[in-house]
Give the backbone structure.
Amino acid sequence: MKTARLIVCLLLWPLTMWYAIIVAIRNRMYDCGLKRSARTAIPTIGIGNLRMGGTGKTPHTEYLIRRFADRHVALLSRGYGRTTQGFLLANGESTAAQIGDEPSMMARKFPTLTVAVCEDRNEGVRRLSQMPLPPSLVLLDDVYQHRSTHPDVQILLTEYGDPYFNDRILPFGNLRELRSGSRRADIIVVTKCPPMLSLVKRTQYQRRLKLHDNQQLFFSQIDYQPPVPLYDGSPWQPVKEVLLVTGIAHPAPLKHHLEKQCTVVAMPFPDHHTFTQSDCQHIRKAFSSMEEKSKVIVTTEKDAMRLLNPDCRSALQDLPIFFIPIAVSIIDSDRFDETLRSLINGSAASRQASY
């Protein structure tokens, strides 16, 4: 296995070098002002990462939505995987196919939240600012490499068990850009931390991140919520066996969580997978083949949005399917909130001074 991996790495190395050079030149052009990174008319917070998926952007975005419940907040996303284009405002009936799974989930979960999708974040914020009641704060989802937009506050997420300082740039590794890109972050959050993370371990981790003086570091943990029926079924009851159907980058933490309670049969699909009728038949077959009578199907909240499409509903609605919402808790949350509001207020003051 080690020999095979070494061969693959050597074959990918030339591609990695070229990709790294292109990304470095692009970032340098933005740093030097040869390419323009624009600030928006409305205060913005960017949430992103350096690596491909799996760091927990969605629950951290939810955390921010709840923390700024006293303000008129909007969420702007690219709408990854949608079949539409351009600027779209979501409503409670918007499907994952129309606006993407994550925006669809947020629109259903927060009925009063303004949710929009647009490939061009600057255009998206401009359209939001022209609404009859424009938002006072826009959360920009997955915007870290979208450098034509300059968020007022940039939050970078990195996973505790798979940090960017141990990774390499694509295609050799999983980083979208060089590790030096972390310097653009105002706040770095280490996600999916183990329970009872000691101060000593946090300090050791901080040293490895090599933060700049103007960067703030925080740690967060996943909180799994009680399972929710997907198709208006019976409430959750403890079972002996679970078929775990996922279309996310890293389903291992959820699988580990469920294995504390029962036997888990994993059925993973690619990240942001669009479930088809054929997939649904495979799910039915896998569920039927499980010998335990006390059994259910469990999926993630994001995958649930894609399983709500008419084809999947008609094929699976008679089966006991549940999704598990997740939330995050941030260690030293009061300091996090204070830091965030201070950065936003400071940016607002500089914006007023420039006009």
